[in-house]
Design brief:
By secondary structure, the chain is α+β, with helices and mostly antiparallel strands. The protein contains four helices and nine strands. The structure holds flavin mononucleotide (FMN).
Length: about 180
């Protein structure tokens, strides 16, 4: 009975990769590093695989705090919200940095030159700056990096009448199991 919700969440996530303005294009990524402080930020969902792996891919600068956190503690959360459907997806998984140079290079080549600047600042993101108009960029090299998140729990919540719907999908070994929860 939970299958229909499993299909819906997959379809919406996939749709967000191509449908202009889809709210699942953006998610909130939560990490907790050694300082034990939860840190949240908006990211763009770049790719999503198919179950059982269901890998979520995001791009970032390898000097960013989220990368430090992931190295310290790979357990992360992703939060998606679709206001039109009143649908929330809470995802828990393990993150790792892509090491495959060929894969990194292929993706880097596909990023348009304007967006490449996001990974080219000569000093690290989050460093203090005297004047925001004076950011220097590298001529050589870059700090582009890809994070892949392999989920082990996905929670679907839809607010609706006569009652809300909350379903937890858990990965056990290689298979996903769904169960309804009290909303
Ligand atoms: C609409 C929007 C989309 C963003 N997308 C990304 C992204 O895909 N990757 C990324 O690293 N930061 C992205 N950011 C910036 C992050 O929210 C965050 O400020 C930055 O990555 C630094 O986070 P950190 O210091 O916690 O690592 C985005 C911000 C906004 C407002």
């Amino acid at each position: 009975m939970t299958q229909v919700f499993w299909q819906e969440l997959q379809q919406e996530l996939k749709k967000s990769l191509t449908a202009k303005g889809h709210p699942f294009r953006y998610a909130t990524l939560g990490t907790v590093g050694l300082d034990q402080m939860a840190r949240l930020r908006t990211i763009v969902l770049r790719d999503v695989g198919t179950p059982p792996d269901f890998t979520f891919t995001i791009y970032t600068d390898q000097r960013s705090k989220k990368v430090t956190h992931i190295k310290e503690n790979p357990k992360v959360s992703l939060l998606f919200y679709h206001p039109g459907k009143l649908l929330q997806l809470k995802i828990e998984g393990r993150a790792h940095l892509v090491k495959d140079e060929e894969k990194l290079n292929t993706q880097w080549q596909q990023i348009n030159p304007n967006s490449r600047k996001d990974y080219l600042t000569s000093i690290a993101p989050g460093s203090s700056l005297q004047n925001p108009d004076q950011v220097a960029y590298l001529d050589n090299g870059h700090h582009f990096c890809m994070i892949e998140i392999t989920p082990f729990k996905i929670e679907y919540l839809k607010l609706k009448r006569p009652h809300h719907l909350r379903v937890r999908f858990s990965k056990e070994e290689k298979d996903w199991y769904g169960e309804f929860l009290v909303p």
